Amino acid sequence: MSNGILKGKRGIIFGALDEQSLAWKVAEHCHSEGATFTLTNAPVAMRFGSLQKLGEKIGCEVIPADATSMEDLDNLIDQSMTALGGKIDFILHSIGMSVNVRKKKEYTDLKHEWMMKTFDVSAISFHKLMQVAYNKDCMNDYGSILGLTYIAAQRVFPDYSEMAESKALLESFARSFGYHFGVKNKVRVNTISQSPTMTTAGSGVKGFDTFFDYSDKMSPLGNASADSCAKYCVTLFSDYTRMVTMQNLYHDGGFSNMGMNPTLLNTETNME
Ligand code: NAI
């Protein structure tokens, strides 16, 4: 079902790696809601070839860019404005990668050089992207910039490791840059805190299945799917949410406000 609520909007979508990716679903929904946009990912991710196929399917130009490189970001924004024929209305930052998690280092024994790389890819890239966009003055008034995050920024999920700090940093960049972008040209900057979702980045976390299951049972609405996350992103790119900015928005089926859910207990609860 499409209502054309992004008709006439131009955007840039980072982070679609394969069909499971949150950004992939966002791209499909933005397309069906009438937006035009470019797709981007790290040059190494292009080798898999899936993104190119998505681009062909929905008629989007694919522009490689390492989100940690200011030069790549600069080129990406210039090329996107040329391809789309004007300034940008929305940007999705859907990027995450932890070197220490990949190399299975325990939280109490992390390699700090790797941690810096993790922060650069997963959080500082958001600041870099916004800085390039801000200085190029490439955003239309009432544009919308979104990053994807996880509740481990606020609560402890031991196996999420250094990604917890990455997300805390990402959310803080959204608030701080949201101020500057708001004053400059009323651009909104928010983060969506999404439920655990079966994707390449998600399932890289140790014990992800248990994690996913726990959260699904704890949330009164169950885990939010990638598809519903994409629909939420669409609303935040649309004109219906023009006054929402500098927020971390939970899209998690209610998980963030739960204390205990009886369905998680093995024995029946008896409150008497
Ligand atoms: P994914 O693995 O499909 O997407 C991560 C993307 O980051 C990939 O496309 C990858 O190529 C890209 N990337 C990595 N290094 C890059 C670089 N240097 N430059 C440009 N792109 C780079 O996984 P998913 O789950 O779709 O992740 C998207 C976002 O959603 C991430 O920020 C993730 O932390 C967040 N998120 C994921 C959840 C989950 O359970 N899957 C839950 C909450 C948030």
Describe this structure in words.
This protein is α/β, with parallel strands linked by helices. The chain has one domain: 3-Layer(aba) Sandwich (Rossmann fold), CATH 3.40.50. The protein is 43% helix and 14% strand. The chain is built from ten helices and six strands, in the order βαβαααβααβαβαααβ. The protein has helices at 22-32, 43-46, 50-58, 70-84, 99-102, 112-136, 163-185, 200-203, 208-218, 226-237, and strands at residues 10-14, 36-40, 88-93, 139-149, 188-194, 248-251. The chain has a six-stranded parallel beta sheet, with helices on both faces. Helix 1 packs across helix 10 (226-237) and helix 4 (70-84) runs parallel beside helix 6. It is globular, with a radius of gyration of 19 Å. The site of 1,4-dihydronicotinamide adenine dinucleotide (NAI) has 27 residues, from helix 1, strand 4 and helix 8.
Label this structure with key terms.
6 strands; 6-stranded parallel β-sheet; 272 residues; alpha/beta; binds 1,4-dihydronicotinamide adenine dinucleotide
Topology of this structure?
Elements: E1 10-14, H1 22-32, E2 36-40, H2 43-46, H3 50-58, H4 70-84, E3 88-93, H5 99-102, H6 112-136, E4 139-149, H7 163-185, E5 188-194, H8 200-203, H9 208-218, H10 226-237, E6 248-251
Parallel strand pairs: 1-2, 1-3, 3-4, 4-5, 5-6
Helix pairs in contact: 1-10, 4-6, 6-7
The structure holds 1,4-dihydronicotinamide adenine dinucleotide.
Regarding CATH, which class? Alpha Beta
Mean pLDDT: 95
Order of helices and strands: EHEHHHEHHEHEHHHE
Instruction: Using the coordinates shown, work out and report the CATH topology.
Output: Rossmann fold
Through-space gap between termini = 48 Å
Tally of separate helices = 10
Q: Any ligands, ions or cofactors bound here, and which?
A: 1,4-dihydronicotinamide adenine dinucleotide
What is the percent of helical residues? 40-55%
Radius of gyration: 19 Å
Major sheet, described briefly? 6 strands, parallel
Based on Cα principal axes, name the global outline.
globular
Spatial order of the strands forming the largest sheet: 2-1-3-4-5-6
| Class from helix and strand fractions | alpha/beta
**Proportion of residues in extended strands:** 5-15%
- Unreliable stretches covering 5 or more consecutive residues: none
Question: Architecture, according to CATH?
Answer: 3-Layer(aba) Sandwich
Q: Tell me the count of domains.
A: 1
Q: What is the H level of CATH, i.e. the homologous superfamily? A: NAD(P)-binding Rossmann-like Domain
For this structure, the quaternary state is single chain
Number of strands: 6
